[in-house]
Every structure is written in structure tokens, then in C-alpha cells.
Amino acid sequence: MENGTRQNAKAWTEVYKTTSFGNNYPTDCLVSLYHHFIKQELAQKKHPVKVLDFGCSHGANAKFFLDQGFDVYGIDISKDAVDYCIRQQRFDKHRFAACDLLGDHVSIQELFGTFDLVIASECLYYFSQSDFDALLQNFYECMNEHAVIYANMHTWNHPLYKNYRDMGRNAEGLTQIPASGKADLPLHVRIVENKQEMRQLFRRFQETATVRSVLELESEMETLHYIGKKIR
């Protein structure tokens, strides 16, 4: 039987084939945290700063960093999403790849070299614990000394997840959520309890900040954001 990560990957690949799902605007909290924390951490880097947008979707976050003068690369599980980045956003086809890093056993460093900043927005909560750890190791190995990482995870205070908290996590650290939300798909998600758990997940990095945000549009949605550095 496929694990939760593989099932999630197949589901999202199908979403991008059949719908217009994708990020049209850069993630608001990421933009804010860039100006409050990330920008200062990168101030001593030689320009242009090289950034990887993992789970790049339709490239809205990548476009934001391109507009800041960064040297931007992207990876997504969906070929349709990456094709959109190249066709509509006009990113360099040699710098964006449709790739299943874990399933294809691909090293980011072999694919694109090393980076000063790694962004993983709205994607890491779809990975089982073992796959999450393997992915973070892949990130770590492609990061230059003092490179910065940004990632976010949702808490149980989320309209799609809060009703399933009592179900607990399976052996992979994931909770199965029935079809709901824009994607209308059954998914396996890794939800964090609090900042302490968030810091534990990213313990291989040196923490710069762990920030809580609450977005109140359709309903309250609590997210935790981690910013850290690679220190050998």
C-alpha cells in the first residue's frame, strides 16, 4: 500500500491537471516575514541571492522573489504547475523542474546546485514523518553556509482540520482528512500542536524566528511559520 505522502502527491498532480488551482498571489505572511526577518538574514550575501521555491505551484512566491532581484529556481510535483510557471510566468525552463524528489531519489544539489534561501510554503504538511525528515535533509545539503530556510505548517485551529483532531495520527504521523476545501480531495496531513513542536521538527537548523499567524477570511486559520539558518 502506498504511504500518505505518495497518495498526496498523486492527488495534487491530478488537481493541477483538471482545475485552475494554484497560487495567483504571493503568500501574505511570507511577504511580511521576508521584510521582518529574512531580508536582514540575507543582507551579507553576495547578489543576486539564489533562492529555491519548493512546491512552487503557479510561481506567485517565486515571482515575488524575482522582483526583489533574486536568482529564482522552482520545483513542484506537478508538471502542469511547472509548465504554467514557464509559459505564463516566463521563468527559465532550465531553472524550474517537475520532480518528485523522494520518489525519484533526486538530490536538489545535483539538480540545481546550492542555495542561499529555501522556501517551502504550504506544502510540508503533506509529508509523512520519515519523508519530512528526508526532505529536510535534502534541503540542508543544498543550502550554503548560513543559508536561510522558511517553511510553514498549520495547527489544529484550522476549519478543514479541527474536527478530525480526535482521530489522532497514524504511524506515519499523518491524519487523514476527507475530501473538502478547494481541492475537494481526501488528503493525509501533518498538523502541529504548537511552536515547541514546530521547533522540534526543524531542529537541525538554527532558529531565527517561529511566528504564529491567524488569517480570518472565510474562517479562522492558524499557521506557524519557521525561519532558520544552516549552521554547521
What does this structure look like?
The strands form two sheets. A seven-stranded mixed sheet has the order 3-2-1-4-5-9-8, with helices on both faces. A two-stranded antiparallel sheet has the order 6-7. Strand 4 (115-120), helix 6 and strand 5 form a beta-alpha-beta unit. The protein is 31% helix and 28% strand. It has helices at residues 4-18, 28-41, 60-67, 79-87, 108-112, 129-142, 195-201, and strands at residues 50-54, 71-76, 96-98, 115-120, 143-154, 175-180, 185-189, 206-216, 220-229. The chain is of the alpha/beta class and 232 residues long. It is globular, with a radius of gyration of 17 Å.
Radius of gyration: 17 Å
Compute the separation of the termini in Å: 38 Å
- Average pLDDT rating: 91
Strand order of the largest sheet: 3-2-1-4-5-9-8
Approximate helicity band: 25-40%
- Low confidence ranges: none
Assembly status: single chain
Helix tally equals 7
Short structural summary:
The protein is an alpha/beta fold and 232 residues long. Helices cover 31% and strands 28% of the residues.
How are the SSEs ordered, and which strands pair?
Blueprint: H1 4-18, H2 28-41, E1 50-54, H3 60-67, E2 71-76, H4 79-87, E3 96-98, H5 108-112, E4 115-120, H6 129-142, E5 143-154, E6 175-180, E7 185-189, H7 195-201, E8 206-216, E9 220-229
Parallel strand pairs: 1-2, 1-4, 2-3, 4-5
Antiparallel strand pairs: 5-9, 6-7, 8-9
